[in-house]
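Tutorial handout. Part one gives the primary structure; part two gives the three-dimensional structure as tokens.
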Amino acid sequence: MEGFDATLARIDSLCKRSNLDYIVIGGVAVMYYESARQTTDIDLSVDTEIGEFNKVVNIFTSNGFRAVKENPLVFFERYFVLPLIDDVNGIKVDVAAGVGGFEKLSISRGKRVTFGNAEFNIATPEDMLIFKLFAARERDIADVKYLIRRFRKQLSIPYLKSTAKKFQELERGDILENLNRFLGE
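Part two.
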């Protein structure tokens, strides 16, 4: 967590000052949930609207985070991710635009935690599972299996299944199928 603490604390302070709701997702969130997992970046989802992407870009790039892409607003509008570098310690930060129903719900359900020397908002285990099932890379599937093993007795299965089912409308029926498969293992 060396260096991550300072970046997480700066992100939290910046988002509070800017009235920008957010949650930390990705590897840092999985690490918080007691995994031996390592990560090289910080991933977060921010509550924003499509017409306000320039506000998010300005909040970060005016406060010590350097855009990785030459035209960050165009990239953010196209891919819904704003890749940044923390100018203080060089840590990569990926800011995802939380514009959809699931993202906004997961941000509102986020919880406040202390990890290392930083205090910040983090996704719940259930929402982390959905984010990871959506990404579905090999590392994400390993995280899904870990989170299910770790939180099996505490997970809200009805919430998970109803949330995963909504992704069928986006032609991502694999999310519910994989959730059911991993819960059955």
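Part three, for discussion. The chain has a mean pLDDT of 94. The chain has nine helices and seven strands.
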